Amino acid sequence: MKKENRIWFWSIAIIILVALTLIIINIANPNTQGSTVITDKEWYKGNSEAQVTLIEYSDFQCPACATYYQMINKIADDMGDDVQVVFRHYPLSSHPQAELAARAAEAAGQQDAFWQMHDKLFVHQNTWSNQSDAKDIFIGYAEELSLDIARFKSDIDNNDIKDAVKDDKRSGNQALVEGTPTLFLNGQKINNPRSYDKLRQAINDELSKLQ
Amino acid sequence: MTNSDKPSMMSSPSFNKLIYFFTGISLIGFLDAVYLSVSHYTGHISCSVVSGCQEVLVSQYSEIFGIPLALLGAAYYLFILINSLLYIDNQNKWSKLILSYLPIFGFVFSIYLVYLMFFVIEALCQYCLLSAGTSTLLFILGLIFIKKNKT
Q: What is the pLDDT of residues B33-66, one digit of tens each?
């Protein structure tokens, strides 16, 4: 290769390499804003038009989530006009029954009983979380909720249901969720409040900021 | 470099083409490893085809002496890429030796990593599988390089 050609060859090679590397780094870097966008497929309580949105990434087998669910339910009951509470699955791999529990809630959701199953799973967490396979217990809960059992059994193993749980977890990964529960108030990750009053205060602060 | 150092088969068109394959595949391998390295440090990865990227990426096998395997992979592919560019530039014998024999080590290491994914971590990551694919292709190209060198 002539000297002049060599300069061109190496310059172009280095430029292409650096440009492609920067593009890949940009793609790999998470966009946490995107994952806090609410879609019409979400499980939510409260006012869907509200100015304040509280997203909870939760795991049905996580003891801390079982403590928080009552607090978050109460927020939805008390402040439902001003806030939209969104539930997203984030089953941790350290909890062997968590993913199945998430699918049970999704399957119940197909029969408009997501929140009823959500509450049942948390209330009875100690009953099923130590089981090697909690599916029969979840079917029992579906019976108690008077769901169509054949449909529930088929839905719990349905690929769309599995994908819905995976999609939630993926969005959690994008939002850099590390554990459960993780709360996002209008897209900003907040430290888990230690009491109902602290959570209510955080929401009120957000509301007053917007007014 | 003197003319005597230049391999005679560089005049063969198929040999010329081979080096461009080396460049392209090592570039893909490098970019894939960069993606995995960034994901390793941010602790986030999105997996659209196969599940388990997160598990693989945070497993105890994802680092050696505190250095992420993905970063070592990026260094490996970059080294191969630079040598293939050097070979295009001046056909030096050291680059030829590296391109012929280094992918053997890369391939053996890839087999070990694929074994870890399937049987130890029991989670699959599409980007890691892509890297296994590129290192296998480099290994095959290296073997062709060796064979052509002997004939």
A: 999 998 887 655 655 555 567 677 767 788 888 8
Structure tokens at B89: 């530039």
**Most A CBs within 10 Å, among B20, B44, B57, to test the A interface:** B44
Give the CATH number of the domain where residue A47 resides: 3.40.30.10
pLDDT at A175 over 90: no
| Nearest CA-CA distance, residue A24 and chain B, Å | 6
- Residue A77's domain comprises 43-210
Q: Does ipTM come in above 0.95?
A: no
Measured distance CA(B117)–CA(B137) in Å, rounded: 20
Contact A84, A53 (CB under 8 A): yes
Tens digit of pLDDT for each residue in B85-116?
999 998 888 999 999 999 999 999 999 999 98
Note whether residue A89 is domain-resident. Answer: yes
Judged by a CB distance cut-off of 8 A, whether residue B86 touches chain A is no
Confidence of residue B120 (pLDDT cuts 50, 70, 90): confident
**How many beta carbons lie within 10 A of that of residue A147, not counting itself?**
22
Q: Which parts of B43-116 fold into alpha helices (H)? A: 53-58, 69-90, 93-115
Within a domain: A22:
no
| Rounded-to-integer distance, Cα B42 and Cα A28, Å | 9
CATH code, residues B13-150: 1.20.1440.130
| A177 → chain B, closest CA residue | B44
Q: Calculate how close chain B gets to A152, using CA atoms only, in Å.
A: 24
Q: How many domains does chain A have?
A: 1
Q: Say if A183 falls within a structural domain.
A: yes
